[in-house]
Amino acid sequence: MTKAPSVAVFVHGFISGAHTWTEVLSHLESDPQVVSEFDLKAHSYDTRLFGWRPDRRIPDIPTLGEDLKSFLEIECQEYESVVLVGHSMGGLIVQQYLAQMLWDNCGAKLNRVRRIVLLACPTNGSEFLLSFRKSVPFLRNVQEKMLRPHSITVTRAHKKVMQDVVFAKERSDGACPIPVAAYAGTSDNVVPLASAQSDFPGATAISGDHFSILAAPRATSRIVTALKYELHQAANHEVGRPDGQATNDYQLEIDPASGDRRILSTDPMQPLVRLQDRDGRISDIFDRSLARELLRGGGPDGPH
């Protein structure tokens, strides 16, 4: 029986398991405010480094997106709203799920998804030990291949999420506005900041490497504090805002010739322009008025 109106589903990463969330969930479950709003569930799936049995294959990310879909429809059907939290490849599975639902014109079924949280997610791929990974002939792992940069499958899903989730203006069969929070690990060399933040507006970073980003020895650990904040935002998502409107005020412009994408903030307190070209290079550019303030030694954060 459900104890809360909402559920937060946590999706682990490559060759990991539900145990990766043990510390985090323990602290979240000890917070009365969190448990009054959310039940917490860890979603497990098949991920292995090697597949020895000829009658059993390693599922690819689109298949795992379907697996997450069935988990949400069966295990979480009684909840009014859902928050999805994905670490590493788990974040790619979450994005694949969203994209597949919209490609299938099932946007109405995503209405209860209130927030997406991505932690050290290799949206633009991971180059960590890439030469070695490519040189090992017996490492024929479809999941590992999709973690490499420029994966067509991952890129298509991400573009769909950006266009019809992050920058969607209204709900329809093929679009559903959902706030997405992307976190990078400050010391992560497996999924560097540019890949984890990608072109998500408002993306940020918290202390830790690819694995220690989930370390939560105390209830005040950064990851616990960050997740409490995101759950609180999800619980109050529609308070004071039009139905379906995203929490960040951004606009997306795409250059039809070059394919470059410019993310423009319409919030005067965040005059940031983020530019991503087709090769995934990202540049953060401030507007001229803020630049002048910075040169004069001022700005929103004081003297520089």
Could you please describe the fold and organization of this structure?
There is one protein chain. By secondary structure, this protein is an alpha/beta fold. Helix content is 32%, strand content 18%. The strands form 2 sheets. It has a 6-stranded parallel sheet with strand order 2-1-3-4-5-6, sandwiched between helices. Strands 7-8-9-10 form a 4-stranded antiparallel sheet. Helix 3 crosses helix 4 (89-103) and helix 4 crosses helix 7 (152-166).
Low-confidence stretches: 239-248, 267-272, 280-304
How many DSSP E strands?
10
Q: What is the 3D shape?
A: globular
Helix and strand succession?
Answer: EHHEHEHEHHHEHEHEEEEH
Strand order of the largest sheet: 2-1-3-4-5-6
Gyration radius, in Å: 19 Å
What share of the residues lie within helices?
25-40%
By helix and strand content, what is the structural category? alpha/beta
Question: How are the secondary structure elements laid out?
Answer:
Blueprint: E1 6-11, H1 22-29, H2 32-37, E2 38-43, H3 61-75, E3 81-87, H4 89-103, E4 113-119, H5 130-135, H6 142-146, H7 152-166, E5 180-185, H8 193-197, E6 204-206, H9 222-235, E7 250-254, E8 261-265, E9 272-276, E10 282-286, H10 288-295
Parallel strand pairs: 1-2, 1-3, 3-4, 4-5, 5-6
Antiparallel strand pairs: 7-8, 8-9, 9-10
Helix pairs in contact: 3-4, 4-7
